[in-house]
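Narrative summary of target 7.
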Amino acid sequence: MNYDYINENYQEVIQRIEAAKLRSGRSDQVDLVVAIKSAELDEIEYLVKNCGVKKVGENRVQQLLQRYDELQKLGVEIHFIGALQTNKVKYIIDKVTMIHSLDRIELAREIDKQAKKKGIVMNVLVEINSAKEENKSGVDPSCILEFCQEIATLENIKVCGFMTMGAKSEKNSEYLKYFYETYQLVLDILNKKVHNIDVDILSMGMSDSFEPAIEAGSTMVRIGRKMFIKK
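Modeled conformation, tokenized:
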């Protein structure tokens, strides 16, 4: 099968990432995590072997487990980027590089507990509900510092940064508003120098919003659907 469309999509995404960095005067690296929930294994293999993708994100525990062996053979970092139930943590704790959706204390404690059993320290991103939407997961921005202080005592979790989805919008200006607010919130947390919070990552932006996210300071973007559109 011809997968040229994947290469074209990938090159377009990279060009748009670089253009967004240029517009905001940035020269640092923006990491790409390809969300693969809608992709077939042969499409993922093409992305890895022909485009050089190094990080993939799974949204569902069951799907991750079903194709873990194949993903492992590709040598990619596997990130868990979906909502995670506490009773599912034990199934993925030794299979992923990072969990992106830490949004409640009981989940943090379970990740810590399961990581301790495996003798590992799990990298996590704290999810912020920057839009304050009731139907969205994530910690309320007003509670984020208290949340970080509480999980800082957990020895088998390493907080590597923060992530946010932002509110769904048709305008980049609306995305920018939420992403800038999250960026400023993260800066405030860094200034507090919370123990065990070593922030290298601010993950904002998906297929419809990665450009304003980068302009607002995102260091990691999660892009899925756009990679697999057949033109």
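The helical segments are 4-23, 41-51, 61-74, 89-92, 105-118, 144-151, 172-192, 210-215.
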